[in-house]
Amino acid sequence: MKDAFGLPQSLLVLGGTSEIALATTRRLIARRTRTVWLAGRPSPALDRAAEELRGLGAEVRTVAFDALEPEAHEAALGKVFAEGDIDMVLLAFGVLGDQARDERDPVSAVRVAQTNYTGAVSAGLVSARALQAQGHGSLVVLSSVAGERARRANFIYGSSKAGLDAFAQGLGDALHGTGVHVMVVRPGFVRSKMTAGLPEAPLATTPEEVAAAVELGLRRRSETVWVPGALRVVMSALRHAPRAVFRRLPV
Amino acid sequence: MFVGVRRNKGDTVTDMPADTVAVTGWGRTAPTAAQLIRPRSYEEAAAAVRECGTRGGIPRGLGRAYGDAAQNAGGAVLDMTALDRVHAIDVTEGTVLCDAGVSLHRLMELLLPLGWFVPVTPGTRYVTVGGAIGADIHGKNHHVSGSFARHVRSFELLTADGSVRTVTPGTDLFDATAGGMGLTGVVLTAAVRLQPVETSLMSVDTERAADLDDLMARLTATDHRYRYSVAWIDLLARGAATGRAVLTRGDHAPLDALSARARRAPLAFRTPRLPAAPAVFPEGLLSRRTVGLFNELWFRRAPRARTGELQRMSTFFHPLDGVPHWNRVYGRGGFVQYQFVVGHGREETLRRIVRRISERRCPSFLAVLKRFGEADPGWLSFPVPGWTLALDIPAGLPGLPAFLDELDDEVAAAGGRVYLAKDSRLRPELLSAMYPRLADFRTLRARLDPRGVFTSDLSRRLAL
């Protein structure tokens, strides 16, 4: 069960090698989390992540999960929920893609959309149903500021996150009053291996800062969390900038 | 799929009212959804217990437990307040036989005109008799009278198999149920011994204590002279004033203490109420500054020493009941109440904790310090001889989770414990150190309720 501060005792991470997810998990293990499920494609990286978290004192298990195989989500995640209550699901999988290549290669662009959006729709619905049946839990969805308004530089990724973000908001409203809390987290540019080599955007942040914001959001039962918080204001202004202006902005 | 299931609401005359709703404790943290069932008879209660699904059920009274004791995510919550009949009052012996859903407020309304009072009352009248047994509540008279269950002659308990047992003091089932947080079964009725009174007024002595040591010295030296004793402590005071407090102690006023006019209706039960706190309260109104100011005014307003003041019972026992829904003042983030006890000889731990809270500047309204008497027989009953401190803290206070964890460590290291009826955040690892009879409790539950019918969010969180 979550405690009064929204801190979970058991955690299911979808996208078990995500740096943001692992930073969040480490932080939650330092609080109340004792049981962790890492869901992801079987890989040495996933096993390493599990081993590292075990070293922090949690009981960690891995489960095979692929965002691109929505047909298998029900079975894979059903197995996890059958073992006991999950207090928090962290939906953290996602790919950035390569905008230039994806524009030339529609198939790889679709893969970005399928991973970030349709994969999340499937996993989100499966998780939501299980959480609703147990009458409690938080579904934390890692969205992105990129989904707030599509930019020339990464609109394929951005549009997939826009879809995910809208889906998660609607899901949160659908689950209102069911004891299940859906929290959309919108980080800005996060310094991680996913963004390695990319030019850094203003208000850049780190996985650890995102983790701290998630913990605070759980405590406040927030529905939307921006990291850093200043992005809420910045994006509010950018959202209303005229197209002709927005196009020219160096963002 | 995501539509709230509204089952059977008024379908037929025989169906119990049932509704899936989000439920929280008095602290308004950690809401979870459960099917709220309101049995109107013992048969309906038994049917509800038999028909509990895999996620079980838990009885709930008036929802005054601060944490998650009367919540059951995904399962059933049995709202017992419809079982509210008072069956018999023995005015010569001073006992009452009533349903578990009867509130102490109702009992006072009925009993005071007859010259009787409840044996133990907490800081609110709005608790049920069932809840009073389940949490084995204590009041300002603990040092004289012990906890509520000490005054229970017997109760009827609906257990997991759907049968009803009569339970009397001195049995394992009684001791597991007193303070057992509803996890042994549903109390249906109880026979409770009462306290005779001549009037409905209290004769109260008030004095100020300059600091914590002064306070503890006064409580130690003179508590035995009073039936009721409590100290309101200002945890925002710092330096030499750390732990300054106002002691209010007293007893039921005898008839001859009343004026001629008051003597015409000596047993009238008056409960003035202010308007309820608004449903939406601005966050951040309770800052260090505002709370500090309130505490300051409150301390200054109190007389340095005054004896024999006549107060209404509601003023003396239940000042917060005068503001319905006062828990809303903490905003939608809610609050936690932290209450612990450390034994005599562990005053140093108490001092250190008070100092730490005061140095941390928690915006905590008047906290309550009380000196407990003898321990009570309930296996999970909270009181042990020593010092108990209770304080409310807004749940959103930065750094609070880790800070309270540190206080838990201090309390556990001193052989103390936190109160389960207040708890919403304890680490499960500390529980068995705090409650040495926990293993017995678990064994009895495993035997009595092998399928785990009685389950709450509290029992899941702490693996009770």
From TrEMBL, chain A:
Keywords: Oxidoreductase. The keyword Lyase does not apply. Its EC number is 1.1.1.333. GO terms for molecular function: oxidoreductase activity. It is an enzyme of class 1 (oxidoreductase). Pfam families: adh_short. Belongs to the short-chain dehydrogenases/reductases (SDR) family. PANTHER family: 5-KETO-D-GLUCONATE 5-REDUCTASE, DECAPRENYLPHOSPHORYL-2-KETO-BETA-D-ERYTHRO-PENTOSE REDUCTASE. This is Decaprenylphospho-beta-D-erythro-pentofuranosid-2-ulose 2-reductase. It comes from Streptomyces doudnae.
